[in-house]
Specification:
Elements: E1 2-5, H1 7-16, E2 20-30, E3 33-41, E4 51-56, E5 59-64, H2 65-70, E6 73-81, E7 84-89, H3 93-100
Parallel strand pairs: 1-6, 2-5
Antiparallel strand pairs: 2-3, 4-5, 6-7
Length: 104
């Protein structure tokens, strides 16, 4: 699996001094129905058995196994999201999450 990190994300990882990224699938309910997406954060996974660990460029990147099975390239970026700046999966994350969770 190939993981591409944007220059902004690389600068963020250096700034916070973290060498760990976790890419996980999320499901949430809201008034308009269900939302499915992919989230990226800098926390250690609670259950490492549910993730594939990839070491690249001095980083440990934990990717959800369901996501790792269905894609060979992941592009991660850093930028403004709803509640501030944070790492995210570049591309149509809600659609990708819905497909992988089996709801499309």
């Amino acid at each position: 699996m190939q993981i591409t990190l944007s220059p902004a994300l690389q600068a963020y990882m250096t700034q916070v001094g973290s060498s760990l990224l976790r890419v996980k699938l999320d499901a949430a309910r809201c008034c308009n129905g269900a939302y499915y997406g992919v989230s990226v954060d800098t926390h250690q996974p609670h259950d490492p058995g549910k993730y594939v660990c990839i070491k690249q460029d001095g980083l440990q990147i934990f990717v959800a196994t369901k996501l790792a099975q269905h894609t060979s390239v992941i592009e991660l970026a850093y930028g403004r999201r709803l509640f501030g700046m944070k790492p995210y999966l570049a591309g149509p994350e809600a659609l990708l999450g819905a497909v992988l969770m089996g709801f499309v």
